[in-house]
Amino acid sequence: MSEQAQSSRIRRGESEPPVTRVAAEASAGPLIVQRTGVPSAVGVGGLQRSAGNQAVSSFLSVRRQVAKKATSTRKAKTGTELKADFVTEQVAKGRFADLSTPVPEGEEGPPAPGGAFWMLNGLNPAEMLEVLRICGKDVRSKLLARIAEADGRFDRPRVESALRSSSWGEKKAGTMGLEAMDAIRDAKGGSFAGVWALLAGKPRVKIIETLRTLPRDMLTQLKGKLGDAPRSDVGKLTEVIDDLLGTGTDMQASDVIDVEGLKGLDRVMASIYNMRGQLIEEKARELGVSTHAAAGIMKVESGGVTFSAATDKTMVRFENHVFWKEWGSANAATFNDHFDFDRSTGGKPWEGHRFRDDPNKPWENCHQSQEQEWRVMEFAAVLSGKEPAYRSASWGAGQIMGSNAKSIGYASAVDMAEAFKKAERPQVTGIFEYIKKAGLVDAVRKDDYLTVAKGYNGKGQAPTYAAWIKDAADAYKRVTAAKKHVIP
User: Fold this and answer.
1) 40-49, 117-126, 230-239, 384-393: which range is least confident on average?
2) Domains contained in the chain, number
3) Which domain holds residue 124?
4) pLDDT level of residue 117 (50, 70, 90 thresholds)
5) Phi/psi at 482 (nearest 5 deg)?
6) What are 373-424's pLDDT values in tens digits?
7) Which residues pair with 101 in a beta bridge?
8) Which domain-ending residue is among 223, 245, 267?
9) CB under 8 Å to 45, separation ≥6 — which residues?
């Protein structure tokens, strides 16, 4: 489904990375992740840099021989599939953080295999995400529930990041996140040029998807090294990192809903929880409202989307009939050359929105895509100036009308739009500010969605909007049952 189709306001109108990790382990003491070519660390018992890979390699060699005999008439499993099988088996046996068993004195050969985290620990980013994908939802959930056991033995931040990304259904972003994590560690406090090279020139959406997989301490490191970033990217990187860090709490839920098997509305609401759950809870608690109602409003307004992948800009919808009130009625000839909407007696002014940048060209539908929305709005801004055009559009995750900017604390529609263009947090916060300023707090508390719909979107299609909000809110309650960041 396209972002435009997801937005209720639109409906209203009608190979492996180059770095290889090697696990170093010892019979006594923590396992420390090392890289090929880096001198081995010395820990309790004297760590051997290549011991983990030797054990894994030998184990897989034996496993392949067994699998080949068992599947002589079928396609042999790949090494990645065998690793996934091993992880699944170890989870079933309750062997999560077991270290490998040393070879008895006087005997030869590699150590015996450890547990599930032992296998995952040294995998390169792409393979770790693929192994976890193959393992499936149940195994991932059990691994996350036992992740604390990896502390001091395995690379918990790396494995946990991979588990969260896999559970979110974001394999590509998770892979890029692990590559960024590895590059940060390789920098060893020196230049972060190699880190920024991974992100240079990337769209804002991709940067957000990548960096939100990192733990807060690494985001803080990145913030301190923005001086090494390409000048052309510094502004965008600064905005994304500051937004992710916030004032001390994450936007993402600290626990995870694994989206595997979820479809349609349930999957969308699970993703809203995963990516915004903690922020939604924080703001809902401040206002004394439920999390499900606020999440339902967000879904209906924007599909839960903050920035469009198509435009790399915040979600927007330009309202021709509002532009008529803001500017067109005083400039009717010019307006009528370029804009149209349903002006029939008893008609629906939010429908029939058409646009043309040349009076001699045919009319176009305004609400085809996010690219078209921005094209129409930017053309309007050329005619009227930014403020009237921005007042005539709805913005961000909550689709707040620019004409309501002052009511939620901004000096102007332009100021609100600029804030929404730079960050996700103000977009989410804006929903709660509008609920408060529009006098909808009691209605939200009571799940009175008809009143909410009238106050948030007007009376024109209130019953339809109310049904949409209820469906989304009910789905949020359903998928977040027993989750941490929930206010009933």
Assistant:
1) 40-49
2) 3
3) 17-167
4) very high
5) 70, 10
6) 999 999 999 999 999 999 999 999 999 999 999 999 999 999 999 999 999 9
7) 112
8) 245
9) 26, 27, 28, 29
Q: Answer yes or no: do 348 and 458 share one domain.
A: yes
Residue corresponding to tokens 């979820």: 262
Query: Is 346 within a domain?
Result: yes
- The predicted pLDDT at position 10 comes to 31
Q: Does 382 fall in a domain?
A: yes
Assess whether 375 and 405 both reside in one domain: yes
Which single residue is written with the structure tokens 């090294």?
Answer: 225
Last residue of a domain, one of 245, 268, 303: 245
| Euclidean distance between CA atoms 166 and 258, whole angstroms | 8
How many other C-beta atoms can be found within 10 angstroms of the C-beta atom of residue 147?
19
Q: How far apart are CA 424 and CA 246, in angstroms?
A: 10
Residue 163 and residue 32 share a domain: yes
In a domain, 228, yes or no: yes
329 found inside a domain: yes
Split at pLDDT 50, 70, 90, the class of 110 is confident
Tokens 């929404």 correspond to what residue?
420
**Statement to judge: residues 144 and 206 lie in one domain:** no
